[in-house]
């Protein structure tokens, strides 16, 4: 249930087009809907301005399809993260409108495109090409949440000139999401060069001693560039949500 839909229902009651009883039936599933194996938070978009996002790993195709149907019935866009391609094909058989983005491992049904809403541009940087799947999860989620998004990929510290060549455009962003594996050095470098919030995303990319992203995570947590915010390993979605909230600070929900 979106804020827009709730306003339409209340306006309908006020104008006499809908009875209070009918309105109650429409909104009675707030704040959540119990499916037995899942409890859908239909109220989240009203509280936070961002709908509930479904985590695809660990759920089977039938569960995801059932959740998807109820999300769409509530009037909210459906976003499923961490969805493997083979499972996405199974879900699409049950939800024909589903669109799958393999680069980000995200499936979605967009009933209403989010209007740009925020102070400025959320920019996503990746250290290497191998970090792009996590970077794309962050970038696509940020777009679906209503941000203007820019991408600057493959600008890691192994060739620092690639980063400095893009500094002018990087400095124009309002919030920076910096995605890196290996030793995770890129967020520290970026944070030392710009005056904007930097959200660091460690990835599981790297050789044995990277320990599945733990080395990058610890490197980012121990950054000597003050003020770097760090999310969990491979958590592009979490970075996008944090960037969205930062980008909206000082702006009322209706855009004033």
Account of the protein in words:
The protein has helices at about 5-15, 20-25, 45-50, 60-75, 85-95, 130-145, 160-165, 165-170, 185-190, 215-220, 235-245, and strands spanning about 35, 40, 55, 80, 100, 105-110, 120-125, 150, 175-180, 200, 230. The protein has about 260 residues and is α/β, with parallel strands linked by helices. The strands form three sheets. It has a five-stranded parallel beta sheet with strand order 8-7-9-10-11. A four-stranded mixed beta sheet has the order 3-4-6-5, with helices on both faces. Helix 1 packs antiparallel against helix 2, helix 4 (about 60-75) packs across helix 5 and helix 6 (about 130-145) packs parallel to helix 11. The mean pLDDT is about 85.
Point out poorly predicted stretches. Answer: none
Instruction: Spell out the helices and strands N to C.
Output: HHEEHEHEHEEEHEHHEHEHEH
Taken from the alpha-carbon principal axes, the silhouette is globular
- Integer average pLDDT: 86
Largest sheet: 5 strands, parallel
Report how far the terminal alpha carbons are from each other: 22 Å
Helix content: 25-40%
Strand pairing plus helix content: what structural class?
alpha/beta
Strand content: 15-25%
User: How many beta-strand runs?
Assistant: 11
Strand order of the largest sheet: 8-7-9-10-11
Q: Compute the CA-based radius of gyration.
A: 20 Å
Number of helices: 11
């Amino acid at each position: 249930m979106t804020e827009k839909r709730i306003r339409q229902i209340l306006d309908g009651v006020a104008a006499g087009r809908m009875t209070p009883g009918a309105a109650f039936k429409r909104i009675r599933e707030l704040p959540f809907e119990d499916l037995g194996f899942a409890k859908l938070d239909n109220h989240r978009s009203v509280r936070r301005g961002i709908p509930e996002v479904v985590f695809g790993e660990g759920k089977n195709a039938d569960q995801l399809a059932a959740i998807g149907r109820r999300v769409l019935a509530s009037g909210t866009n459906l976003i499923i993260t961490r969805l493997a391609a083979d499972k996405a094909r199974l879900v699409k058989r049950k939800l024909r409108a589903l669109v799958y983005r393999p680069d980000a491992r995200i499936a979605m049904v967009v009933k209403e495109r989010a209007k740009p809403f925020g102070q400025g541009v959320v920019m996503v940087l990746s250290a290497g090409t191998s970090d792009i799947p996590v970077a794309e999860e962050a970038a696509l989620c940020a777009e679906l949440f209503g941000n203007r998004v820019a991408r600057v990929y493959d600008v890691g510290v192994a060739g620092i000139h690639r980063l400095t060549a893009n500094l002018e455009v990087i400095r124009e962003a309002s919030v920076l999401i910096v995605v890196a594996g290996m030793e995770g050095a890129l967020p520290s470098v970026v944070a030392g060069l710009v005056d904007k919030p930097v959200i660091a995303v460690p990835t599981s990319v790297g050789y044995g001693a990277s320990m599945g992203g733990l080395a990058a995570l610890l490197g980012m947590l121990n950054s000597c560039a003050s003020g770097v915010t760090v999310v969990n390993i491979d958590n592009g979605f979490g970075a996008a949500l944090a960037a969205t909230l930062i980008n909206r600070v000082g702006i009322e929900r209706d855009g004033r």
